[in-house]
Amino acid sequence: MGTWFVIGVKPTMFEKTCSNAVENYTLMENKSFDINIDFQYNQDEPISSKLKSLPQKGWVQGNRSNSGDWKVSPFWPVKMPYKIIELDDKDYSYCVIGYPSREYCWIMARKPVMDDSLYESLTKKLVDKHQYTLDGLRKVPQKWTRAEREKRGLTSVQIPDDLLTPDLN
């Protein structure tokens, strides 16, 4: 659960030009769904383009405490399969989400940056281990100012000050 920054994506129709994409996952108790997903992104350019939101609901398939198989609904009645195919099992600093047709995938991290060697390793695993092509995979621009961080309700732990660009006034 928690905050995840979308670093790379084989995009759905909503993500083809997005930037500053952030997903916040909250485990729900006593609801008709298991996970509340708050997905926010800039439509095009970071900071300067329109802020969009796509709230979603998720359902864990199988054991709720450790299953990597989910269903995610961006809108009723659609429920898309969502499978965690790679996960940093040391400190959960990154994950890769797959889709059965391999048409979509998401490379996500706890911070808005990812070391190039880790990104390359994950894309290699997508191809070699999970049989994806990288056609259409794009890096999602992540450019943050202090004002943008505050507007989104993010903290300096989630986006450290040394990752900020100067405010554009």
Mean pLDDT: 92
Question: Tell me about the biggest sheet?
Answer: 8 strands, antiparallel, barrel
Task: Report the count of strand segments.
Answer: 10
Distance between the termini: 34 Å
- What is the strand arrangement across the widest sheet? 1-2-3-5-6-7-8-9
Low-confidence parts lasting 5 or more residues at pLDDT below 50? none
Helix segment count? 2
The shape, in one word, is globular
Provide the gyration radius in Å. Answer: 16 Å
User: Which structural class is indicated by helix and strand composition?
Assistant: mainly beta
Give the SSE string. Answer: EEEEEEEEEHEH
How helix-rich are the residues, as a percent range? Answer: 10-25%
Beta-strand percentage range = 25-35%
Give an account of the 3D structure.
The structure is a single chain. This protein is mainly beta and 169 residues long. Helices cover 11% and strands 35% of the residues. The protein has helices at residues 116-128, 146-151, and strands at residues 2-10, 19-27, 35-42, 51-53, 56-60, 69-73, 80-87, 94-98, 105-109, 138-139. A hairpin with a 6-residue loop joins strand 6 and strand 7 (80-87).
